[in-house]
Design goal:
By secondary structure, the chain is mainly β. The protein contains 2 helices and 22 strands.
Length: 360
C-alpha cells in the first residue's frame, strides 16, 4: 500500500496565531529576537543581504548552529559572502569553539564574538569581523516588516515540526564599509533582512525551493516557492509580497500562479534548473506578472562538498545529493489593466535555488 501523505502547510488559522502568540496584522520587535534557545532540536539564523552601488553583492549571516544538524548543541558562527561584478567570489566565516554568544529574546540583538546584528524592525546595525576582514552595514527599511500569515510552515499530524521565516526588512537603503585584504571601500545600495528558525532538519521537511527579491522602480518584491518532501506529497507553499510606496499591495497567494520554464540539468550539481520563473498575481482588481530570467550562475555547489569527516561519510552512505545555486539575471515587472500591459519595468536581480531532495 502507498504510504499516507502527511499534512503540512503555511499556518494561518486562528488556532495557529493563538498558539504562536503573534498578531495577524502587526509584527512585534520580539519576533525578530531569539526564538530558540540554541539547544538540541533547534536551529536559527539572522540573514542580511545587500546589492551595492558598484554591482557587488554582500551577504552576512549569524547562525546558532549548522542548520542541517538541529540535534546538536549550540555552536554559533557568522559568515560573510562577497560576489563582485567581475565574477570574483569571496567567502569567510568566524567559527571558533566556545566563542561568546548572546541573543536577546525581546528584540534583534545578536552577538557572536566581535560580530553583531542589532535592530528594531526599521533600522539595523550589522557588523562582521573575523580579525582579518570586516564589514559594517547600516540598513534602513523602506517597507514595513511582513510575514506570510504566521510566518510558520507546520508539518505532521500534530503540527509537530516547523520552519519559520520573518522578512523583518523586505527592502531598505544601505550604507556599507567593507575591508578585505587591508583595503576599505565605502558603498551605498539596497538591502534586505530576514530571520529563520525551526526544529527539524530542513532536508527532512522540504524538497526544494526558489527564493528571490528585487527592487524594480518604485516596486519591492519578495518571491518564494517551496516544495515539501515526498512524505508530504511534494506539497507547495507559495510566498509572494509586492510593495509600493512603503505599503504592501499584494500578498494573498490564493491569487498567485507560479510557472517555472525552460529547464535544464546543471552540469555541476546535476539538478534541474529553470531559466525562467513567472509569478502571476491576479485578484480580479490587481494583476501583476513578475518574471525572472537567468543570465548566469554565481554559485553552484553540491552541499556534500561543505561537509567533512563523519558527516560527509554519512551523507554519502544515505545518497544525499543536495545542492545550492545562486543566479543573476533580469527581473521584469508587468502591471496589467484588463488584457493590456499598462506598465513594464526591468531591473537586475539575484535569486536562489536550494535543492535538498533527489531529482523529480
Amino acid at each position: 500500500m502507498p504510504k499516507k501523505v502527511l499534512p503540512s502547510g503555511i499556518a494561518g488559522e486562528d488556532r495557529h496565531y493563538e498558539r504562536l502568540g503573534v498578531d495577524p496584522v502587526s509584527i512585534a520587535p520580539w519576533e525578530d529576537g531569539a526564538r530558540t534557545d540554541g539547544g538540541p532540536g533547534s536551529y536559527e539564523w539572522w540573514y542580511v543581504d545587500t546589492r551595492l552601488d558598484d554591482g557587488t553583492s554582500l551577504v552576512i549571516v549569524f547562525y546558532t548552529k549548522r542548520m542541517m544538524v538541529p540535534g546538536k548543541p549550540l555552536a554559533p558562527y557568522a559568515t560573510i559572502d562577497l560576489d563582485y561584478p567581475d565574477g570574483r567570489h569571496f567567502e569567510e566565516r568566524l567559527e571558533v569553539p566556545g566563542i561568546p554568544y548572546s541573543a536577546d529574546k525581546n528584540k534583534c540583538e545578536v552577538h557572536i564574538g566581535p560580530c553583531y546584528i542589532k535592530g528594531d524592525l526599521h533600522t539595523y546595525d550589522v557588523h562582521y569581523d573575523d580579525g582579518k576582514n570586516q564589514a559594517h552595514v547600516t540598513l534602513k527599511s523602506n517597507v514595513p516588516p511582513w510575514r506570510p500569515k504566521t510566518g510558520h510552515i507546520f508539518f505532521g499530524e500534530a503540527d509537530e515540526d516547523s520552519f519559520a521565516w520573518l522578512p523583518s526588512v523586505p527592502e531598505g537603503d544601505v550604507t556599507a564599509d567593507i575591508t578585505v585584504d587591508g583595503i576599505t571601500t565605502h558603498h551605498t545600495g539596497t538591502g534586505y533582512h530576514d530571520h529563520n528558525w525551526g526544529n527539524r532538519n530542513m532536508m527532512q521537511l522540504m524538497h526544494h525551493w526558489y527564493w528571490g527579491r528585487a527592487r524594480v522602480g518604485e516596486y519591492r518584491i519578495i518571491t518564494s516557492y517551496i516544495y515539501g518532501e515526498k512524505k508530504y506529497g511534494y506539497a507547495e507553499y507559495p510566498i509572494f509580497l509586492l510593495a509600493k510606496a512603503g505599503e504592501h499591495i499584494a500578498d494573498d497567494t490564493q491569487y498567485l500562479t507560479f510557472t517555472p520554464a525552460d529547464a535544464f540539468i546543471n552540469p555541476q550539481t546535476e539538478k534541474p534548473v529553470h531559466n525562467t520563473l513567472i509569478y502571476d498575481y491576479n485578484d480580479g482588481e490587481k494583476h501583476y506578472r513578475i518574471t525572472y530570467k537567468r543570465a548566469e550562475n554565481i554559485i553552484n555547489f553540491k552541499m556534500i562538498e561543505q561537509l567533512k569527516g563523519l558527516q560527509r561519510l554519512g551523507a554519502k552512505l544515505i545518497g544525499f545529493t543536495g545542492a545550492y545555486h545562486r543566479f543573476s539575471g533580469e527581473v521584469i515587472l508587468e502591471r496589467f489593466e484588463g488584457d493590456e500591459i499598462a506598465e513594464r519595468l526591468t531591473a537586475p536581480a539575484i535569486w536562489e535555488l536550494m535543492y535538498f531532495g533527489k531529482n523529480i
